[in-house]
Write a structure and sequence with these properties.
By secondary structure, this protein is an all-alpha fold. The protein has 4 domains: 128 residues, M75 peptidase, HXXE motif (A middle domain of Talin 1), CATH 1.20.1420.20; 115 residues; 145 residues, Cytochrome Bc1 Complex, Chain D, domain 2 (Orthogonal Bundle), CATH 1.10.760.10; 159 residues, Cytochrome Bc1 Complex, Chain D, domain 2, CATH 1.10.760.10. Helix 5 runs antiparallel to helix 6 and helix 11 packs antiparallel against helix 14. The strands form 2 sheets. It has a two-stranded antiparallel sheet. Helices cover 49% and strands 2% of the residues. The chain is built from 20 helices and 4 strands. This is Cytochrome C peroxidase. InterPro entries: Cyt_c-like_dom, Cyt_c-like_dom_sf, Cytochrome_c_Peroxidase/MauG, Di-haem_cyt_c_peroxidsae, Imelysin_sf.
C-alpha cells in the first residue's frame, strides 16, 4: 500500500512538472509570436510609460541632466513606433513629434498650438529652468493623452504586408529628409542616434513578415545586414555637426531602399495607394521618375500628358493671352534663365516695377501652393491668376480662345491633347499651360547624378557643402531633400511657409513691408510669411528672396548665418527661423554655395 501511494505521488509530480514545462513553453511561444500589431501596441504602451516616468521626475524636481536623460529615453522609445504612427495616423502624429510651431488651418482662420516631444525639448534644452515646470508638466500630460488615443486606434486597424512595405519605404525617406537633418531634434541634436533606432525598427518589421522562401530570406538578410551596419555607423559617428550624411545616404539609406523594392518584388507584395506623390516602384527617392506630378493636380481630368505639355509649350509663347498682344508667359519666365527674368522684381505690363521677384517655374509642379504668398493651390489656378492680373498680362482667356479657334495648328494640338472635347474650353488652356510647367522637372543635376550613383565627381568642397546644408547650417529643415522646397516629406501633402525676417534692403535695418500670406489670411502667425521656394537651379535664378534683396548666394547665406531678421536686429515677433547664429566660417560659407550650385539642371550648366 505504501509503495502504491509513492508511485501515485511520483506520477502526480511528473504530470505537474510536464504541465509546468508546457505552460512555460506555451508562454514563450506566445511572446515570440507576437504579431506586428501586438508588438506595436506594446511599444506604444512602453513609450507612454517612459513619458509618465519623465513626468514623475519633473514633479519630484529632479536635476536637469536626469530630466533630459529621461526625455531622451522616451523619444528613443517613440522612434521604435514612429514608422506606424506617422504612416497610419499622420494627423495626430504632428502633435507627437511635430515642429514646435502653431498648426494653422487658414481656411477656418484657426490654429492649434503645438505640443509633443519638440515642445518639451524646447522647455528642457539646452537648459531646464525651474520656472518651466508648470508648462513642462502640462505638455507631458498632453503628449501622453495623444499616445493613449493613438493606442486605441491601433487596436482597431489591420496591418497588411503591403502596408509594412510602404511604411518601411516612407520611414527610410523620413530618416533621410527629417531625421538626420535635425528637423525633429532641433535643439538637443539627438537625431543621429535616433536615426539608428528608427532603422532598427524597419529591420524588425521585415523579419516579422515571415516570408520564408530562400530568395526572400536572402534578401531579408541583406536588408538586416545593411541596417545593422548603418546603425553601427550612427553609433560611432553620433556628433550632429560632423556626421557624414552624403556617405550615409549613398552607402546605407539608398541601398536599403533599393533592397526593400527587391524584397517587395520577390514576395509579390502589391503597392498601396497610401502615398501617391512618390512612385511606389522608385528604387530610391532620388530616381529620375520618383515623383508623380499628377499627385498635385486639382482633379482627374487634369492628368498630365505629353500632348498637353506640347500644347502648353505653344501657349506659353502665345501673345493673345495678354491684353495688348505684346506679352506672354515667357516674357517674365525666360526659359534660358531657368524660367525667371533675372530682375530684382518683376516688371508690370506698363513697364513699372512690381513688388515681388519672379520665381522659377522649374519644379513648381511639386508644390501644394503657388506664388510667394501661396494664394493659389495649383498650377491651373496660377496660370489663370497671371493671365487675368491687370499688372501682369491683363488678359481674357475667353477672348484668346476666339483667336485660337481660328488657327488650324492650334485646333489640331487641342484635339490631340483633349480628344474627347468638342470645343476649346478655358480649363483646357489652363491645364495645358500647367502641363507644360509639369514637364520642367529634369532631375539631372550634378547632385542627382551623384546620389543615383551615376557619377562620382562630387568634390570634397561640394560634399562638405551638402553635409552643412543637411546639418550644421540647418537649410534642409525648411528646404527638404530631395526637392529642396517646402513640400514636407515623406508624404509631401503640405507645402510650408516661413517667416525669416527678410529685410527691405541690404542695409538690413527694417523688415520688408510686404506682409506676404497675411494679405490672404489675417492671422498674426502669417505676417511677412512666404512660401519656402525650391533651391533647384538656385545658382542661375538670382536675385533672391521675395523682394530680390540679395544678389548672390553668399549674401543669402550670410543672412541666415546671422539668424535672419532677428539676428540683424530687426523686430520680428513671429519669426519661424531660429534667430541664433549658425557660426559658419568663411570656408563653410564657400562650401555651402558650392553645393547649391550642384543643384543646377544640365541644360543650365555652363
Amino acid at each position: 500500500m505504501k509503495l502504491h501511494t509513492n508511485n501515485w505521488s511520483k506520477n502526480i509530480f511528473l504530470l505537474l512538472s510536464f504541465a509546468f514545462v508546457i505552460l512555460i513553453v506555451g508562454c514563450e511561444k506566445k511572446y515570440t509570436d507576437l504579431t506586428i500589431q501586438q508588438e506595436l501596441i506594446s511599444d506604444i504602451q512602453k513609450t507612454y510609460q517612459n513619458v509618465s516616468e519623465l513626468e514623475k521626475l519633473v514633479e519630484e524636481n529632479k536635476g536637469e541632466k536626469t530630466i533630459q536623460e529621461a526625455f531622451n529615453t522616451a523619444r528613443i522609445k517613440y522612434k521604435k513606433v514612429e514608422w506606424a504612427i506617422e504612416y497610419f495616423t499622420p494627423n495626430p502624429a504632428r502633435f507627437i513629434n511635430g515642429p514646435a510651431l502653431d498648426e494653422l488651418e487658414v481656411a477656418e482662420n484657426t490654429f492649434f498650438p503645438p505640443n509633443g516631444f519638440q515642445v518639451i525639448e524646447e522647455l528642457i534644452y539646452p537648459n531646464y529652468p525651474i520656472e518651466n515646470k508648470t508648462d513642462l508638466i502640462r505638455e507631458i500630460k498632453k503628449l501622453n493623452a495623444n499616445l493613449k488615443q493613438i493606442e486605441l486606434h491601433f487596436e482597431a486597424i489591420t496591418i497588411s504586408n503591403a502596408h509594412i512595405i510602404d511604411a518601411s519605404k516612407m520611414e527610410i525617406n523620413r530618416i533621410l529628409a527629417l531625421g538626420i537633418t535635425g528637423f525633429d531634434s532641433p535643439i538637443a541634436f539627438k537625431s543621429i542616434p535616433e536615426a539608428a533606432v528608427s532603422l532598427e525598427s524597419v529591420k524588425v518589421l521585415i523579419s516579422k513578415m515571415k516570408l520564408n522562401s530562400p530568395e526572400s530570406a536572402q534578401c531579408e538578410k541583406e536588408i538586416a545586414d545593411l541596417i545593422s551596419q548603418a546603425a553601427v555607423f550612427c553609433q560611432k559617428n553620433n556628433d550632429f555637426k560632423t556626421f557624414d550624411r552624403a556617405f550615409f545616404i549613398i552607402n546605407y539609406l539608398n541601398p536599403i531602399s533599393k533592397k526593400l523594392v527587391v524584397f517587395q518584388k520577390i514576395n509579390k507584395i502589391e503597392n498601396t495607394n497610401k502615398n501617391s506623390v512618390v512612385n511606389p516602384n522608385a528604387t530610391t527617392i532620388f530616381d529620375k521618375e520618383a515623383f508623380n506630378v499628377n499627385a498635385f493636380i486639382p482633379s482627374e481630368e487634369y492628368q498630365y500628358s505629353k500632348d498637353k505639355a506640347e500644347l502648353g509649350k505653344q501657349l506659353f509663347y502665345e501673345n493673345s493671352l495678354s491684353d495688348n498682344n505684346n506679352r506672354n508667359c515667357s516674357s517674365c519666365h525666360n526659359p534660358e534663365k531657368a524660367f525667371t527674368d533675372g530682375l530684382k522684381t518683376n516688371q508690370s505690363l506698363s513697364g513699372g516695377n512690381l513688388s515681388r521677384n519672379t520665381p522659377t517655374l522649374t519644379y513648381a509642379s511639386l508644390q501644394n501652393a503657388q506664388f510667394w504668398d501661396m494664394r493659389q493651390l495649383d498650377l491651373e489656378k496660377q496660370s489663370l491668376d497671371v493671365i487675368q492680373n491687370k499688372d501682369e498680362m491683363h488678359g481674357n482667356v475667353a477672348n484668346a480662345i476666339e483667336v485660337l479657334n481660328k488657327d488650324a495648328a492650334y485646333q489640331k494640338l487641342f484635339k490631340k491633347a483633349f480628344p474627347k472635347a468638342k470645343k476649346i474650353e478655358e480649363w483646357q488652356v489652363q491645364n495645358a499651360l500647367a502641363s507644360y510647367i509639369r514637364s520642367l522637372n529634369a532631375f539631372d543635376s550634378k547632385f542627382d547624378n551623384y546620389m543615383r550613383g551615376e557619377s562620382n565627381d562630387f568634390t570634397d568642397e561640394e560634399k562638405l557643402g551638402f553635409n552643412l546644408f543637411a546639418g550644421k547650417a540647418k537649410c534642409a529643415t525648411c528646404h527638404f531633400i530631395p526637392l529642396f522646397n517646402g513640400t514636407v516629406p515623406p508624404g509631401f501633402q503640405k507645402t510650408e511657409q516661413e517667416v525669416i525676417g527678410t529685410p527691405a534692403d541690404k542695409n538690413g535695418k527694417k523688415i520688408s513691408p510686404d506682409l506676404g500670406r497675411y494679405m490672404q489670411y489675417e492671422m498674426p502667425q502669417l505676417k511677412n510669411a512666404f512660401k519656402t521656394p525650391s533651391l533647384r537651379n538656385v545658382a542661375v535664378t538670382a536675385p533672391y528672396m521675395h523682394n530680390g534683396v540679395f544678389s548672390t548666394l553668399e549674401e543669402v547665406i550670410d543672412f541666415y548665418n546671422k539668424g535672419g531678421g532677428v539676428g540683424l536686429g530687426i523686430p520680428v515677433d513671429n519669426q519661424t527661423l531660429p534667430s541664433d547664429e549658425l557660426e559658419l566660417n568663411p570656408k563653410e560659407i564657400k562650401a555651402l554655395a558650392a553645393f547649391m550650385k550642384t543643384l543646377t539642371d544640365k541644360k543650365y550648366q555652363e
